[in-house]
Amino acid sequence: xxxxxxxxxxxxxxxxxxxxxxxxxxxxxxxxxxxxxxxxxxxxxxxxxxxxxxxxxxxxxxxxxxxxxxxxxxxxxxxxxxxxxxxxxxxxxxxxxxxxxxxxxxxxxxxxxxxxxxxxxxxxxxxxxxxxxxxxxxxxxxxxxxxxxxxxxxxxxxxxxxxxxxxxxxxxxxxxxxxxxxxxxxxxxxxxxxxxxxxxxxxxxxxxxxxxxxxxxxxxxxxxxxxxxxxxxxxxxxxxxxxxxxxxxxxxxxxxxxxxxxxxxxxxxxxxxxxxxxxxxxxxxxxxxxxxxxxxxxxxxxxxxxxxxxxxxxxxxxxxxxxxxxxxxxxxxxxxxxxxxxxxxxxxxxxxxxxxxxxxxxxxxxxxxxxxxxxxxxxxxxxxxxxxxxxxxxxxxxxxxxxxxxxxxxxxxxxxxxxxxxxxxxxxx
Length: 429
Ligand SMILES: NC(=O)c1ccc[n+]([C@@H]2O[C@H](COP(=O)([O-])OP(=O)(O)OC[C@H]3O[C@@H](n4cnc5c(N)ncnc54)[C@H](O)[C@@H]3O)[C@@H](O)[C@H]2O)c1
Fold this sequence. Notes:
Number of helices: 14
CATH class of the largest domain: Alpha Beta
Largest sheet: 8 strands, mixed
Radius of gyration: 24 Å
Structural class: alpha/beta
Distance between the termini: 53 Å
Shape: elongated
CATH architecture of the largest domain: 3-Layer(aba) Sandwich
Order of helices and strands: HEHEHEEHEHEEHEHHHHHEHEHEHEE
Bound molecules: nicotinamide-adenine-dinucleotide
Number of strands: 13
Number of domains: 2
Helix content: 25-40%
CATH superfamily of the largest domain: NAD(P)-binding Rossmann-like Domain
């Protein structure tokens, strides 16, 4: 398969062209023949014009690529090495929602031919590829796994908004259902991943590796958040403590913050689900999730308490929330925990305005039902700097003074203005 792909005698198809799928499709298209398939025709139309609908890639990334974008599943039949990069969200009960990955498996299963490969890149729990996806491929294709077609799993590790750790500069974990599959999958990814690949010993190991990377982050951030709850009661600035402790060589550099998005706040639920299935209640992971999910409510309550303490009638209070995306310097608002802050403040009848230089007002309205403002309107009783976008990093105390009423509160969640605010009432985690 590797030789055929390299010589353009075989074609790669990428199913699901989002944050993960499009970059890998374009990277392969610099070296191989690629068909990029997505179920959303409007996204496909944009990509045909060299526009990344996820707003991560520059249009020049499309230049010189041997890629055909399509929303027609029939076109996948012309490909031989299929990469699936569709969402793996959770449902309202925090359980894995496998609908997109099963749907994509059906699409690929219907297009599968003898000798084809299917590689999953979507984040799943260990065992999902073989137990949940392969049977669908077999059923739809009428072919036999390992004999007629091979399967691999290669998790994606890109970090949206990160211009340093990019797709090609991060070691890629690869795996295959047997030695031959592993070798082909590894060599094919080596064509584009400059940092090289790590050959995992099985599909399950590769699946587990990805899920624990994000689980480890989640649990550590939860610990930092818990520390900030303790220190807040003692009037100790958590970031001051972390700065001091961080001078030790083996102190891990984690910080408290709102854990949103579709990876860190979601993936541990996949592992929790699997752990339960195999008879273990993973209490520590569960606690991490509980703690991090309660952060937005906690922040809002602190703001409310401080506004009341400043003798302001909470129903007349106006709060400006700066930043609504799930993390800094991205446009992605999915599973943003800033929304929890907004909703909790609103539940106290506070008048909340939210603003963000990256988020789309239309998308926020559709997803969360509230109207962001385009520009600030008058004075506020509190300003909550929730997301440390580049645009928000170098403002001055005078800037925040102009936004705030007398006795107004400046909440700097990530502590980026620590030691820079002299006169204003200031609170950070
Ligand atoms: N975004 C990240 O930073 C990141 C990083 C590492 C891993 N992951 C994982 O990668 C996977 C994909 O995430 P993403 O962020 O790229 O998602 P995304 O929402 O940005 O993109 C998914 C794309 O798949 C399309 N799609 C959905 N169902 C489909 C189907 N049945 N057939 C074809 N296309 C379909 C959607 O229209 C969308 O364009 C998830 O499992 C995620 O956990 C994401």
